[in-house]
Every structure is written in C-alpha cells, then in structure tokens.
Description:
The chain is α+β, with helices and mostly antiparallel strands and 389 residues long. It has helices spanning 20-25, 27-30, 53-64, 69-78, 91-100, 128-138, 172-181, 258-264; strands spanning 5-10, 42-47, 82-85, 108-115, 142-143, 146-147, 152-153, 163-169, 188-196, 204-206, 218-232, 236-243, 246-252, 271-279, 288-298, 302-306, 318-319, 326-327, 334-335, 341-345, 352-355.
Amino acid sequence: MTIRMHIGLDDTDSTSGGCTTYIAALPVEQLSHLSSKGTDPGIVFLSKPEIPEEVKAFAQSAITGIVTLKEAIRLIRKFGGEALGFNTCRGIIGALAAVGETFQGDHTYEVIAYRTQENLGSKRRVDKASIFKMERLTQPFTFNNVDEEKQRVIITPRGPDPIFCGIRGETPEVVKKAFELIKPLEQVERWVIFRTNQGTDAHLTRATALSELKPYTSIIARGIVSKEPWVVPLRHVLFSIRDGSGEVDCAAYEPTGTLRKIAKELVIGDAVEVYGAVRKRSRGKSLTVNLEKINVLSLAPKVTYQNPVCGACGKRLESMGKGQGFRCKKCGARFENAVKVKVVEERTLKPGLYFTSPRSQRHLTKPLRRYGLEKRGLDAKAMLRDWHS
C-alpha cells in the first residue's frame, strides 16, 4: 500500500547559517539540529491522498495576509496531521502553508546550489562573466540573474547561509542548463531543483477600494494621484493617491532605483495602479503602500504658470509683489494688470507598467520578463528525472 505523505518545513533560516531549502535538501541530517537561537523551525506531516481545501485556503491566506499558529494547529489536528516545532514554533505556520501550496496555478522553478562546509561565511567565488553570458543565453526563460543598472550579480547571496547560488526560471530544464553555464570557482557540495511560487505575484490581492487596504497585506489598487511627489531623507520618493473611498500614501524607496524616477514624474490627476505591501499607520501618517510596481494608466496635463513676457522688448517680466503686477527689468516697462501665463508642458512619462530594480525585487514579485509566460495547472511531465545531485 502506497501512502502519500506531504511534508512542509519553514523558518529554519538564521544568522548563524541556517536555510529552509537546505534543510529540505538534507532532512535526515538536519532535523535533529534545529534549535539555533533566533529561528523557530517547524515541520508538518500530513498523510492524505489529496490536500484538503481548507489547508489550501490557509496557504493562500498565509501568502497574502496574516494567519496564526492557533489556526495552523487546529487544521493539523482536524486532518490528522502531525507537527513538530522548536522555540516559539512559528515555523509550523509556514510549514503548513508549504503543504497547502500545490502550485496548480502559475509557478516557477529554482535550482539552488550549496556550498561546502569550509566555505561557509566567505565571499562566493564565481566567474562573473559566465553569469552575464548565462543571462544572455537563457533569457527570457530565466529571470533576476543580474542587475543591469548596477552591473551586479544577484544570483549569489552575501550572508553566511549555505547557498552558493539560486537561478530561477520557467522549467526544470532551463534552470539546470543555466546552472551548467556558470563557472563556480569553489566546490559545490550539492544542488536541488525546487518548484516555487517565486516571480508569480502570488502575494498580491486586488483591492476594489482604497478603504479596503489593511496593514501587512500586499495589494493591487487603483487611484488618482492627489498629492505631488515629494522627497524625504535618504532620497525616498512619496506621493498620494485617492479614490472615492479614501486616500493612501505610496513610497518608492531609494533602493528601488528606476521606480523612484517614475514616481517623481507623476503629477496630480494621473491615474495609476499601485502594487505593494501595506505598511501600518504611524503617528500623523496614513497607511503607506511600499511600492513594487506602478502601472501608469493615463496622464493628466502637466500645467505650470510662468511670468508673461514684455510686450516692448520680449524679455520675461518679474513680479512686483502679490497683486502689484509685473515689470521689465531690462526696459523698465510696467504692466499692472498682467497675470501669469498658463503653460501645458509635454510629458516625458508614458503610460505603462514600471518595476523596481531587480536587486530590490521581492522573491514573489513577477518581473516584466515573466508576463505572458504564466502557467495554468501543473504538468507532471515537467519534472526532470535528474533534479538533484
């Protein structure tokens, strides 16, 4: 008799070198060593031929909002599962969500290579040129390999964790090929291909009104720009949008790169669709959407007002004070009844979808390259026979 066992793990990452996917690659060796300070590991076992719909719904709620350990334990007990947790046991939440995420909708793949023990904590050594070559040869079927703006490699992390590199793409074949194209300059201990929801926008839910926005959720919402963009310390750019139900601030932080430039070009009246996580209210401030993308739907006229020109010599006049008219500094002519002239400026910004720079994109954020490559349903034939080594 064959029993199908669904196993989920989460929250084994730690500053001392832990990593959830590495635990998945080494379950037998690692499960007995999960008590590291600052991490709250959890593992869930669910022996069912099919995942219950309530567990699938729990996974969706965990990805898009907030769920509790109490909810997770209730479902595990209800469906006869087992759970093991350490410290606060918070990892059980993500572990159950991992069981419930069946990837029947859009999904991607990632090949993750791991380092040998003696190299942990040191800088990753890899031929940089080979990664840029891999990027050219595998696009558009891999994504977020490099940041062209900064000419930076982004498949290699910088922390003490055991990951050497991670390459994300559309199929197991393409990520394996991509891995074979790069040239590590240190020994790779092992590699595994995972099916994931990275690059799918799985965390985003569409709000029909700004009044629906809640802290700690990730949303897509529409509105009209209601306040001109302003820059705050550290070069973050903020603006506000409004609809018939309310108003929220939107923030393009300095690391988002290109998105900051787009945000600065918006004017009052532009219609936009914003994508991002909702930050809770702070003293004197409204809810804020931390931007991942901006979809510029339509542009309002950009209007400025300029001093009129002198009718005698053609030079631009200067104001003599509020309500006192204008004068020409060159010829001395005065125009007491003159008013500023309305000028409609040409917009350089165009309607379209704009993204944060790859270096600052969340793992779940769908990059431009993936639009049109979304999957519907899981193809069992997609998995490789040789999916790990």
